[in-house]
Amino acid sequence: MATSPRIAIDAMGGDEGVRVMIAGAALARHRHDRFKFLLVGDEVQIKAALEDHPNLRAASEILHTDEVVSGEDKPSQAIRKSRNSSMGLAINAVKTGQAAAAVSAGNTGALMAMSKLSLRTMPGIDRPALAALLPTLIDTDVVVLDLGANTECDARNLVQFSVMGAAYSRIIFGFEKPRVRLLNIGTEEMKGTDSLRFAAQHLRESSELHMDFQGFIEADKINRGECDVVVCDGFSGNIALKSIEGAARFVTDLLKRAFTSSIRSKFGFLVSRPATELLKHHLDPNNHNGAVFLGLNGVIVKSHGSASVNGVANAVEVAARLVEEDITARIAQDLEQIAHKDVIEG
User: Fold this and answer.
1) Contact 292/95 with Cβ under 8 angstroms?
2) Choosing a second label site near 280 at 20 to 30 A (CA), which of 30, 44, 57, 343?
3) Helix and strand counts by DSSP (H, E) for the chain
4) Domain coverage including residue 51
5) pTM (2 decimals)?
6) Which candidate, 130, 102, 173, 97, places its Cα nearest to that of 291?
């Protein structure tokens, strides 16, 4: 286990760029003084931002580049920039061992394409998956994957995603056998596509895996706390994620409108403010920030582009935790349990 994880930070990514990324890394360093950093981006801007964070400056090295992958760049364009861009250099630092993990708030598609090209997928994994934590009604979040890296998946992919998601949940939450379910349009065994049914059959028969497979789950139950890992193809997962985020914004906006509609409602807001503040905290995506590309030969964490300083710090902490707990080795060990079995469709 690494005792002093060094994290490469794509300082130029995200909506607000250097200021928030550096402040987020500084907050993570304040919380965990063993962290070390490789700050990748424009040296002048990074040094200026470090003036306010001497503790981070003392634990960091700067890798200069003035080339940036923009939010509008297609993955193919980003790959052409990969040799010299801040995102590409941060990923390459993981490949060469200069850093144990990389964190970027930049273009998701570009980050996925560049990470896969540079780090390659682990033996036994056909495709990497994007996994994130979503809030639930219980004390722990739920791991959901894939959230957009793969729009079409077969049963073999879904089984591999289940193994990776369970390993992630065991590290983040300490579960011995996380409860795993496949996202479907119903909970009955005959519901869904062939890929879903074949994946479910395989997982039911693989009792040696470090998970408790509990069948299917519908989208309206994702946040109920009824399972620890939800597995789906990237197309369905991305729609589910955007729907959940939209519903959360709708509820908070509706409450805001209701509490400002009259003098009586404003008084009601003051009375109920502790409850509404708790709701706001629970739904704040910054408190769950840090999506992970699972299945690569290295740890890459995607921070939300609009993440706050606290959100970036949380993403850095996720990266460090996965390095310290050796997520790649955990997944490899679990894959060995099903290496002798083929997932056959049809």
Assistant:
1) no
2) 30
3) 12, 11
4) 1-121+295-306
5) 0.86
6) 130
